[in-house]
Amino acid sequence: MTLLGIDLGTTSVKAAVYRDDGTRVAGAARGHTTRRPAPGWAEQDPSDWWGGLCGVVAELDAAGALGGLDGIGVCSQVNTHVVTDAGGAALHPAITWQDRRCADVAAGLTARLDDATRAAVRGGLGTVDPTHPAARAAWLAAHAPGVWERSRWVLAPKDQLLLRLTGVAVADPISSIGLVDAGGTYPAWLDAVVPGLTGRLAPLGDPAALVGETTGAGGLPPGVPVAHGTMDAWSSLLGGGIAAPGDAIDVAGTSEVLAMAAGPGGGAPGIVTFPTWRGLHVHAGPTQAGGDALAWASRMLGLDLPSALTTAAGAGPGCGGVLFLPQLSGERAPLWDPHLRAHWLGATFDTGPAELARAGMEGVAHAARHVLEVLEQAAGTTAGSLAVCGGGSASDLWCQIKADVLDRPLRRTAERDAGVLGAAVLAGLAVGGGSLADLTDRMVAVEREFTPDPSTRGVYDDAHGRYRGAQRDLAAMFVP
Q1: Most buried of 212, 214, 305, 308, CB within 10 angstroms?
Q2: Residue 274, pLDDT above cutoff 90
């Protein structure tokens, strides 16, 4: 069986063809940009997504990898929304998950909900945050009423791709966390706060159900079955081998996403609890910035990212007392505070680029530790180890820093693009290639394990206490 996985991420479209034993036949990627036309705004041009898809498909075709495809799976960034016409053509720039323009709108919508409704919003978080589709829709209705009136669909990025590839508009309940109620349907309160919203939301289907077949659009061969797919983080869980209670993962991408499978029930404030899917009960916490924060710190130091990683190796654990708080655009889990801001703290005349660069890496690790602490409360158990994948996992130094800060072994997957592999796994499920456990057992492999260095324990425990204290003490400074 041959499967194609596609991941429309925050910084690129990636795709790869796999055999069902996990062998990567060929892969390709095309980058796209995020535009920031106003403070707090973060937009993408959906035509860049389509151009990226066509580019990777052309490269895979040139490599002879697209012949005999049995299925296609797609995942994407979520809490990014694009409004389209009936055929999937975008009517407005996509408002991404990093965009904070709707903070005031979201607060107003939350205030209009009763307590029972709040308890069901966004996986139990209880608030309509600035990335919620209702907040985005309300903002568009107020600021671009012509666009809103002409719109047919409000779609996640993957669902726009699916519409253009198959001609069918669909969504899935996992990507739609916060939109769907416990029964897996769109709740009535959405239309109460934004009239006409539910009529613009696509019908829901299981991530591993078939949408239809390719039409030949985008350069893909026609007639190939396509799965609904899901969000990139969830797809990365599958691509990282998360299949049983106690399994945990760190997806080291543009943001840092930690997730853990557990038994039924559980939950904790600030953590998203997903609807049960095929026996998986998953709790998760996405930060606002991971690799993106380190990329920013690198630019501020006048370095490209590889040079920053090399420079950081010149500093020791704790960075000579320097801390970095990576909340460049607020924070998501577990604080969900759009007003937090980033800082380098504790610099002295002895501080140099090495300490500042390593502090950037350690700051992201401290944000991940904060999430993990609450995640384990939600799951009611301790993670014995974590799989790690994503672009940030390519750095041995960063993986070791995270293992030391988290005080947990990290198992780096052989396939860094776990979201792409997870999308292929969903395609395999959709076309009857085996059970979830069978497919992940065959297709997911561990390349290296990083074990915590006990000599760093005291340094990082102290640094984490100072990190959390600084975050608390500085939070009020940036509230309007």
Answers
A1: 308
A2: no
**Tens digit of pLDDT for each residue in 414-455?**
999 999 999 999 999 999 999 998 999 999 999 999 999 999
Q: What is the pLDDT of residues 203-225, one digit of tens each?
A: 999 999 999 999 999 999 999 99
Of 94-103, 123-132, 358-367, the range with the lowest mean pLDDT is 123-132
Considering the four listed CATH numbers 3.30.1460.10, 3.30.420.40, 3.20.20.140, 3.30.930.10, the one that applies to the domain covering 2-232 is 3.30.420.40
Task: End-to-end CA distance of the chain: give it in Å, rounded.
Answer: 55
- Tokens of residue 284, six digits: 């998760």
Which one of 3.30.420.40, 3.40.50.300, 3.90.1150.10, 3.30.70.1350 gives the CATH number of domain 241-414+445-480? Answer: 3.30.420.40
Q: Taking residues 319-333, what's their average pLDDT?
A: 96
Contacts of 348 (CB under 8 A, 6+ apart): 320, 321
Q: Residue 117 — pLDDT band, cuts 50, 70, 90?
A: confident
pLDDT exceeds cutoff 80 at 202: yes
Please report the beta strands in 158-276, taking only residues with DSSP state E, as ranges in sequence order: 210-213, 225-227, 230-231, 248-252, 256-262, 272-273
Closest by CA position to 306, among listed 293, 294, 317, 318: 294
Q: What is the CA radius of gyration of the chain?
A: 21
pLDDT at 142 over 80: yes
Separation between Cα atoms, residue 393 and residue 204, nearest integer Å: 33
Among candidate residues 304, 286, 294, 302, the one with its CA nearest the CA of residue 324: 294
Number of helices (H), then strands (E), in the chain: 15, 20
Are 251 and 364 in contact, with CB atoms under 8 Å apart? no
CA atoms of 46 and 180, how far apart (whole Å): 25
Question: What separation in angstroms does the CA of 17 have from each of 69, 72, 416?
Answer: 9, 9, 14
CA-closest candidate to residue 335, choices 383, 367, 294, 363: 367
